[in-house]
């Protein structure tokens, strides 16, 4: 009995082992068909997404470096443009200042010239007025001293002599 029990245990054990093996293989096929494919596909999709993200990050980094270099270049250009604008403004300001100074000097010269002409005209008018006044005073004095009226030619000679005396006295001043 002992031998048949062991044989029955061995057969039962072998049957259980075969059943477990068949169920295991069946479960393995079911897992492969229903779970392994989607899991593998999901892992492949995830790997592709990670690679795409890494490529996108590399592209973004390269683009950022390019933009940074471009901004740096534009900054240098803007600095040089600002310097050029300032220099141009200085040159234009200096030209404008010189034009204003030249105009002011020209105006000052014309005012001086006009003032000289006006002074000369006033002097001439004052001398002529003084000559006329002196001539009349001389005639009046001469008439009182002489007691008679002078002729036109006598008046003219007297006036001319007096004017010559005034002119020579005025030139010595």
UniProtKB/TrEMBL annotation:
Membrane topology listed for this record: Single-pass membrane protein
Stored Gene3D superfamilies: 6.10.250.1580
Keyword Calcium in record: no
Subcellular location: Cell membrane; Endomembrane system
Pfam families hit by this protein: ATP-synt_B (PF00430)
Keywords in alphabetical order: ATP synthesis, Cell membrane, CF(0), Coiled coil, Hydrogen ion transport, Ion transport, Membrane, Transmembrane, Transmembrane helix, Transport
Source taxon at top rank: Bacteria
Magnesium found in the keyword field: no
Coiled-coil segments on the chain, per record: 47-81
Parts of the chain that traverse the membrane: 18-39
Annotated family: Belongs to the ATPase B chain family.
HAMAP family, alphabetized: ATP_synth_b_bprime
Role according to the record: F(1)F(0) ATP synthase produces ATP from ADP in the presence of a proton or sodium gradient. F-type ATPases consist of two structural domains, F(1) containing the extramembraneous catalytic core and F(0) containing the membrane proton channel, linked together by a central stalk and a peripheral stalk. During catalysis, ATP synthesis in the catalytic domain of F(1) is coupled via a rotary mechanism of the central stalk subunits to proton translocation.
PANTHER family membership: ATP SYNTHASE SUBUNIT B, ATP SYNTHASE SUBUNIT B', CHLOROPLASTIC
Subunit structure, as described in the record: F-type ATPases have 2 components, F(1) - the catalytic core - and F(0) - the membrane proton channel. F(1) has five subunits: alpha(3), beta(3), gamma(1), delta(1), epsilon(1). F(0) has three main subunits: a(1), b(2) and c(10-14). The alpha and beta chains form an alternating ring which encloses part of the gamma chain. F(1) is attached to F(0) by a central stalk formed by the gamma and epsilon chains, while a peripheral stalk is formed by the delta and b chains.
Listed name of the protein: ATP synthase subunit b
Organism per entry: Lapidilactobacillus mulanensis
């Amino acid at each position: 009995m002992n031998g048949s029990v062991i044989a029955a245990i061995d057969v039962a054990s072998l049957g259980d082992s075969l059943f477990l093996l068949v169920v295991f293989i069946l479960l393995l096929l079911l897992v492969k068909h229903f779970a392994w494919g989607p899991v593998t596909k999901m892992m492949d999709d995830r790997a592709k997404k990670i690679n795409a993200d890494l490529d996108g990050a590399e592209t973004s980094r390269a683009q950022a470096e390019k933009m940074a270099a471009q901004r740096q270049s534009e900054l240098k250009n803007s600095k040089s443009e600002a310097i050029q604008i300032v220099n141009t403004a200085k040159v234009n300001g200096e030209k404008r200042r010189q034009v204003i100074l030249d105009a002011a000097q020209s105006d000052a010269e014309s005012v001086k010239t006009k003032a000289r002409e006006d002074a000369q005209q006033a002097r001439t008018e004052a001398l002529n007025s003084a000559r006329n006044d002196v001539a009349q005073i001389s005639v009046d004095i001469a008439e009182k001293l002489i007691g008679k009226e002078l002729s036109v030619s006598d008046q003219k000679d007297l006036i001319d002599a007096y004017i010559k005396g005034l002119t020579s006295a005025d030139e010595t001043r």
